[in-house]
Write a structure and sequence with these properties.
By secondary structure, the chain is of the alpha/beta class. The chain folds into two domains: about 1-220 and about 410-465, 4-Layer Sandwich (Metallo-beta-lactamase, Chain A), CATH 3.60.15; about 225-405, Rossmann fold (3-Layer(aba) Sandwich), CATH 3.40.50.10890. It has helices at about 40-45, 65-70, 70-75, 85-115, 130-135, 225-240, 255-270, 280-295, 300-310, 325-330, 350-360, 375-380, 415-420, 440-450, and strands at about 1-5, 15-20, 25-30, 55-60, 80-85, 140, 150, 155-160, 170-175, 180-185, 210-215, 245-250, 275-280, 320, 335-340, 365-370, 385-390, 395, 400-405, 430-435, 455, 465. Helix 4 runs antiparallel to helix 8. The termini are close together. The mean pLDDT is about 95. The structure holds zinc ion (ZN). The site of zinc ion (ZN) has 5 residues, from loops.
C-alpha cells in the first residue's frame, strides 16, 4: 500500500493523509483546515491536493477544525463515501463545522467588500452552512474498540487518544495483495496523562507503521497544581488588586471547559473572589452542553467530583453568553470580571472584540492558555509584541500578558514516549512524524532514536511512501 502526506507536514494544522491499498481502496485520514498561516491560509485550504471522487472513505481522528474543517469542501467537490468517527466526535464536529461555515461566510463578505473597492470580482466562501448540511449526511459512527470492516481489505479500530472529547487513535489492518496484514496506526492528536477531565491515552495494538503527532516533541509541560494556583493569583492580581478585566482567549472545545472547571473547583473551595465570570461564545456554550451530556467519557476523578457537584461547568456568578447584544454589553461594563472567549489563537471570534477593547489598558490582563501558531495574533501577543493589529488597526499592548502552558491538550515529549511504549519497537518498520513545527519534529526524532526506535521519517508535503 501507499501513503501520501497532504497536510500537517510543515505545520500543526491541515491534517490530511491519504492511504491507498494495493487494490486501490483510498482511505483519507482527516481532512483538516490550515489555520493561522497568514495570507497563504485561504489558498492552502482551497486546494485539496486530491480528487475527492477518488476517495472511498474518510476516517476522522477527532473534531478539531485542523483535522475536520475541510470535510465540507471535500463533499462539495465530489466525495461520495462515508466519514467515520466516534459517536462523541460526531456530536462535537457538527457544531464546529457549522461554526466554521459561518466564519467563512462572514469573512468573505468583508473580503468581497474590499475586492469590490479594487474593482475585482467577488469570490465564494470556502464552504457554506448548506455545504455542511450535505457533509453531515456522510458521517457514520464507530464506537471505541469495535473492529469495523471498511471493506474486504481494511478494518478500522478506534482507541482513546485522550486529547479531546471523542478523540481517537486510528488503527487500521490492511490486507496486501498476498493477503498479508499490515498494521497502520495514525495517532491523531495525543492527549496528556492525568488530564483534568479526560481519560489517559490508551495503549494501542501493535503497529508496523505509525504516523505520530509531534506538537510538543521538544517540550515538557508545567505541573498542574501550579497552574491552578497560578490562575488564582492572576485572577486576584487583575480583578481584586487592579480592578481590571481578565481576558482569557480559549478554544471552545476543551480549554474553555478546563478553565471553567478550575474556577468551579476554586469556587467550591471558597477561594474564588466574588467576581462575575463570562463564557462569551455561542460555540463554547454549545460544546459545554455536549460535554455535560457525555460526562461518562471523562476520567474517574471527574466522575467522583460530580457526586458532590453535579455540574462541573457551572456555578453562581458564571454566565454563558450566546446573544451578541449581551456580548457587546461587556464592552461598556467597567466592572472587574473574567471573560473567557474564543478563538484560542485570537484570530477569529468575539475574543478579537474583547482584545480590541481591553488590550491597551494596563489594569487588564490577557492570559494565554493555549498553543498559538506562528503569525497568529495570539502568538504575537504571547511573544510580547508591544503593538498588535486587530481588525486592521494598531493597538498598544499595555495590558499585562500572562502565560500558563500546562493546559495543553497535547502530550509533551515524555508523554508521547510513554504513549508509544506499549509497542514492541523492533516490530515498527517506519515511524512518520507529522503535526509539529520543524524544531519539535527534529528534537522528537532525536529522542526517539535514543529510545531505540529506527527509521523515523519527517515527511514533506505531497511525499509518498510505499509500505509493505
Ligand atoms: Zn486536536
Amino acid at each position: 500500500m501507499k501513503i501520501k502526506f497532504l497536510g500537517a507536514t510543515e505545520t500543526v494544522t491541515g491534517s490530511k493523509h491519504l492511504v491507498t491499498t494495493e487494490k486501490g481502496f483510498a482511505i483519507l485520514l482527516d481532512c483538516g483546515l490550515y489555520q493561522g498561516m497568514g495570507k497563504e491560509t485561504d489558498t492552502l485550504n482551497r486546494n485539496l491536493d486530491l480528487t475527492p471522487s477518488e476517495i472511498d472513505v474518510v476516517i476522522l481522528s477527532h473534531a478539531h477544525i485542523d483535522h475536520s474543517g475541510n470535510l465540507p469542501l471535500l463533499v462539495k467537490e465530489g466525495f461520495l463515501g462515508s466519514i467515520y468517527c466516534t459517536p462523541p466526535t460526531l456530536e462535537v464536529v457538527e457544531v464546529l463545522l457549522y461554526d466554521s461555515a459561518k466564519i467563512h461566510e462572514s469573512d468573505i463578505k468583508y473580503v468581497n467588500k474590499k475586492r469590490e473597492q479594487r474593482g475585482e470580482a467577488p469570490i465564494v466562501p470556502l464552504y457554506t452552512t448548506k455545504d455542511v448540511d450535505r457533509c453531515m449526511k456522510h458521517f457514520k459512527t464507530v464506537p471505541y474498540h469495535a473492529d469495523y470492516v471498511l471493506n474486504e481489505d481494511a478494518t478500522l479500530t478506534f482507541t482513546d487518544a485522550g486529547h479531546i472529547l471523542g478523540s481517537a487513535v486510528v488503527n487500521l489492518k490492511i490486507k496486501d495483495i498476498s493477503d498479508k496484514i499490515i498494521n497502520l496506526t495514525f495517532t491523531g492528536d495525543v492527549g496528556k496523562y492525568n488530564d483534568m477531565l479526560l481519560k489517559n491515552p490508551e495503549p494501542f495494538p501493535q503497529a508496523d507503521y505509525i504516523i505520530c503527532e509531534s506538537t510538543y516533541g521538544d517540550r515538557l509541560h508545567e505541573v498542574d497544581s501550579d497552574a491552578e494556583l497560578h490562575l488564582l493569583n492572576v485572577v486576584k492580581d487583575t480583578c481584586v488588586e487592579r480592578k481590571g478585566k481578565l481576558i482569557i482567549p480559549a478554544f471552545s472545545l476543551g480549554r474553555t471547559q478546563e478553565i471553567v472547571f478550575i474556577l468551579d473547583k476554586l469556587k467550591n473551595k471558597g477561594l474564588l473572589p466574588n467576581i462575575k465570570v463570562y463564557v462569551d461564545s455561542p460555540l463554547s456554550t454549545n460544546v459545554t452542553d455536549i460535554m455535560r451530556e457525555n460526562v461518562v467519557c471523562f476520567n474517574e476523578k471527574l466522575q467522583e467530583y460530580i457526586k458532590t457537584d453535579p455540574d462541573p461547568f457551572g456555578f453562581s456568578n458564571l454566565k454563558y453568553i450566546r446573544e451578541k447584544e449581551e456580548s457587546m454589553a461587556l464592552n461598556t461594563s467597567k466592572e472587574p470580571c473574567i471573560i473567557i472567549s474564543a478563538s484560542g489563537m485570537m484570530d477569529a471570534g468575539r475574543i478579537k472584540h474583547h482584545l480590541r477593547n481591553n488590550i491597551s489598558d494596563s489594569k487588564n490582563t490577557i492570559l494565554v492558555v493555549g498553543y498559538c501558531t506562528p503569525n497568529s495574533l495570539g502568538r504575537h501577543i504571547r511573544d510580547g509584541q508591544k503593538v498588535v493589529k486587530i481588525f486592521g488597526e494598531e493597538y498598544e499592548v499595555n495590558a499585562k500578558i500572562e502565560v500558563i502552558d500546562s493546559y495543553s491538550a497535547h502530550a509533551d515529549y515524555s508523554e508521547l514516549l510513554r504513549f508509544l511504549s506499549c509497542q514492541d519497537k523492533t516490530k515498527i518498520k517506519k515511524l512518520f512524524l507529522v503535526h509539529g513545527d520543524i524544531d519539535a519534529k527534529i528534537s522528537f526524532k532525536e529522542k526517539l532514536y535514543v529510545e531505540g526506535y529506527k527509521d523515523i521519517i519527517i515527511p514533506n508535503k505531497r511525499e509518498s511512501f510505499h509500505l509493505d
